[in-house]
Design a protein that fits this description.
This protein has 88 residues and is an alpha+beta fold. The protein has one domain (3-86). The protein contains 2 helices and 5 strands, in the order βββββαα. It has helices spanning 56-70, 76-86, and strands at 3-8, 11-14, 29-32, 41-42, 49-50. A 3-stranded antiparallel beta sheet has the order 2-1-3, with no helix packed on it. It has a two-stranded antiparallel sheet with strand order 4-5. Strand 1 (3-8) and strand 2 form a beta hairpin.
Length: 88
């Protein structure tokens, strides 16, 4: 199973942007495609989507984010990426 990225110190990094030595750092948690989350994950450095599995709550989170865009909240380019990846 391929590592998509890492969670480290409260931040998420894609595999390309992860700090050196993440794979050997016991405080860094790998992100795999099968790891379910309650919201989408974007890399803190490059902002690319780290596409892992989402729970039902995670899919609802994206739907809510789309509704928030109509109220002027959120980043349209990020929410669009989430919707295309998970709701299409």
């Amino acid at each position: 199973m391929r590592v998509l990225g890492y969670h480290l110190d409260g931040d998420a990094f894609c595999a390309d942007c992860a700090p050196a030595g993440c794979a050997d750092n016991p405080l860094a948690y790998p992100i795999f495609s099968v790891d379910e989350g309650d919201c989408p994950t974007n890399c803190v450095k490059c902002e690319d989507l780290i596409r892992h599995a989402l729970t039902t709550d995670g899919l609802d989170y994206i739907r809510g984010a789309r509704e928030d865009l109509a109220l002027g909240m959120g980043r349209p380019e990020i929410v669009k990426e989430w919707a295309e990846a998970y709701l299409a």
